[in-house]
Amino acid sequence: MPRIWDWDLAGQALPLLLKGFLVTLAATVVASVVAIILGLVLAMLRRTRFAGVRAPVRAFVEFVRSTPVMVQLFAVYVVFPGLSPFTIGVAVLGIHYATYMSEVYRAGIDGVPKGQWEAATALSLPRGRTWRAVILPQAIRNVLPALGNYVISMFKDTPFLAVITVHEMVFEAQTFGGDHFKYLEVFTMAAAIFLIASYPTSLLVRRLEKRLGH
Amino acid sequence: MATEPKLPDLSAVDTPPDLPSGTPMVQFDKVVKRFGDNVVLDHLDFAVQQGERVTLIGPSGSGKTTILRLLMTLEKLNDGVIYVEGQPMSHMDRGGKLVPANERYLSTVRKKIGMVFQQFNLFPNMKVLENVIEAPVHVLGVSKDEAVERAKKLLDLVGLGDRIGQHPTSLSGGQQQRVAIARALAMQPDVLLLDEVTSALDPELVADVLNVLRDIARTTSITMLIVTHEMHFARDVSNRILMFDKGRIVEEGAPDKIFSAPENDRTQTFLRAVLEER
User: Fold this and answer.
1) With a cut of 0.90, is the ipTM above it?
2) Model's pTM, two decimal places?
3) Contact state of A134 with B125 under an 8 Å Cβ cutoff
4) Burial class (CB in 10 A: 0-12, 13-18, 19+), B140
5) In chain A, which residue's Cα lies nearest the Cα of B124?
6) pLDDT score, position B276
7) How many CB atoms lie within 10 A of CB B169?
8) Hey, is the C-beta of A212 within 8 angstroms of any chain B C-beta?
């Protein structure tokens, strides 16, 4: 009678899963950096004086937000066959989340009291300096927890990269399961690894939220 | 009082411009300001001479704060021209014609003006000292060492020399407002605008702020435009009171005259109302 849970198999799978997890982690880190920086750029472009910039940026954000990330991955994968799947994966994931984060930044920027802008004007601070020294530090501080939650959410979206053959953890699990005709162990372990990594992170974000008085 | 400052040396921030005699420091020429259909300033004319301290009084909505905000370039006027030191401020000269000022022009003229706000508006992400040196370093191009030295003097003057490393949020409202005063002075303004600077304060904190302002008024020649409900303070520091109602000046004169023998009905009713409330 076949055992439901095969410890030997689990032991064999673990190194592969951990190898995949490193790719998952790398994708999360790179895509987060893309999203965090590009999100801010998008948010600021949506506030520029030039209407000719605002409208297309807004259209882009709406478009990306309204289409599934999986479809975007496939589309870019097909259109740019020369790029490595990892590059495409982190770019698409990063841009996708950048549009979400741009909304978060926007709320943070809008949340800085008008009096701060006025004080900066009264002191003749140039616009660039006002953004850098006055507005953004306050805006970003207020949205750090929200950004953190999106990073966790992105981490859990990395399995989508498997569909364009990035060898992240779920891709490895699938391959291993297919080779041995047994999926229970690998997928349970993959889920556990996700949980082990994301739960403490979400606790950290929650503590940050409390400290900032949300 | 514990925070009573010694008579301060304000020579570093008291840098009056060399105006040709007879040139007003500030001049409003038929200034109109509307918010939607609401006419806040109705062809307003008035001038403030160099070194003068003028207090604007009147019921809320009479346009006093709007005047200060126009001068600080926080609002745009709908008609008329504002002059500062004889130069147009709301407009700029383009081949002999006055056209509305652009941002670059405004950024040069607004350096002459400093403002203290009702809600202080200190930068909460900067420490007290950083608040005061931010603009001198990044706008006037003063070296950091010099800016720090000057800021320390100013913070001493407002009785907060021992708080330079703290964040504004850890200070009382009155202390924050005194930092805001130091911050405005650090830019060596020719005109200082005080917009209801004690209105957001608990009553027991008002005196410290007003005393600091009295010192500044006594020891400098900085031109001041003041909007306040503190009539005793207005009487102490002002050379002239302008009484506003519905966007127009209904009465003006020396404080003694306005407070002791107001002629206009509106002034009388208004003063009765504010003085009784105390």
Assistant:
1) yes
2) 0.88
3) yes
4) middle
5) A138
6) 80
7) 9
8) no
